[in-house]
Design goal:
The complex is a heterodimer. By secondary structure, chain A is α/β, with parallel strands linked by helices. Helix content of chain A is about 30%, strand content about 15%. In chain B, β2, α4 and β3 form a beta-alpha-beta unit. In chain B, about 55% of the residues are buried. The chains are: A alpha/beta, B alpha/beta.
Chain lengths: ~425, ~160
Amino acid sequence: MGMTMTQKILAAHAGLDHVEAGQLIEADLDLVLGNDITSPVAIKEMEKMKVEGVFDREKIALVPDHFVPNKDIKSAEHCKCVREFARKNGITNYFEVGQMGIEHALLPEKGLTVAGDVVIGADSHTCTYGALGAFSTGVGSTDMAAGMATGKAWFKVPSAIRFYLVGKPSQWVSGKDVILHIIGMIGVDGALYKSMEFVGEGVANLSMDDRFTIANMAIEAGGKNGIFPVDERAIAYMKEHSDRPFTVYEADEDAIYDEEYTIDLSTLRPTVAFPHLPENTKTIDEIGQDIAIDQVVIGSCTNGRIGDMRVAAEILKGRHVAEGVRCIVIPATQQVYLEAMQEGLLKTFIEAGAVVSTPTCGPCLGGYMGVLAEGERCVSTTNRNFVGRMGHVKSEIYLASPAVAAASAVAGKIAGPCPAEKRLS
Amino acid sequence: MKKATGRVFRYGDNVDTDVIIPARYLNSSDPAELAAHCMEDIDRDFIKKVRPGDIIVADKNFGCGSSREHAPIAIKAAGVSCVIAETFARIFYRNAINIGMPIIECPEAAKGIEEGDEVEVDFDTGVITNKTKGTQFQGQAFPPFMQKIIAAGGLVNYINGK
């Protein structure tokens, strides 16, 4: 019986010729990741282990990004704990404020994740690196601790769902619309415990930023990982960003899939997930009534990359954020921030009446930098719209692409990005 | 392993880690402090009503969302002895096992248990007894590998013992 792409990567890292779904294995890790919320718990757990130190100081990435620059004293203490651990253990990939970015945008940009890797991270959106053809998955702090100490993790080999992508998305349709469409179709537990393998000639029509966004939200369908084949575009990205050798794995032709879907990208429309689950999706055409908004957030590990900034700026250029709306733009890394500055995008945002923040996860999880009050509504390019996620339990989050978010900021209500379609009055 | 017995707090589908422990409290990693806000955004009275040994029963995809281990830590520190659900989100499932918080998947039990019922869970056999209604359900037992981790008291002890 053939293996899926994910199964092949796991087999190779477990020293096995063959694995099958349901099998419990122990795999070697290429990278172990943690942030300022999950690492302190992991560090405390690791201290209880009878180990000398970390398994490999170059294969651990510590990225304080959730509540930095420190939002309060308790957060400052957490960051201090991570910083001191990094110093004590000589961790080479510790990213201080000034170098840091949102972890899942930062690691591929720094070349720390490449095709064929097995990566665990104590953050659920670690599945992002599947865009490069790596197996990467979110775990908790104790798994992170064990990973840092031993360089290994246990996995139950997942079965897979195959998404066969065909066609080319239209101008204002992005990776965010593709993944929201899929989550709307299969539900927030539609891929529970499973791999989501994206294949087909349509993949060539998706930018790397689109693919990062799609893989990033595999977890919102309950997936263990999301993964893309390694094509010329992925190889070009890795060569530009990394010196590390990479390994290309391909699914066997007779690999078994639990389910298969074909998605024609050319038929997709800008899509919005309504409160309070990412599966509550409607296309922009299905919305019908006006939904007035108070805030827009453009950023996050899902949509804070340079491609996202460019799309938002294209829509905001020469326009102004509607009266009564706060528009918060957060480039995901220092590099994205710098490029956005050099390309004049920051000027566009500021002239349009948006604020631009240093990289942080802040508002996505209701930490700071854009917390919602009772009854407020936000259109956000982030990944979760659960009850209370961005602030008050009676606030509402509408998940959308940067194009829809920027258009909504201008319209003061949820709006599609194309003037000819609907909106931008 | 032992048995758990307690009164049931009953929740529905997709109980996410943001309602189990809202991120505004994640500037702390102290179990007692986290427990004080456990389930706050879905059930404000939970922490006032919960007693040591009580059991949470939920439907599909319990613990979906963030990878925060603070979620099972908060539930455990609140005194909950077991979570029974139709299904669990995978990261929550791993985290619960790794910190030694007993959980058990059983769709039939999830359907046959109501808020306030008195329930007993036998971890060795996977048998769940609804003492209030006089019914029994067979929950899924852990694979041997996970039983070893749980028996060791979590992943840290398991690794130390190897």
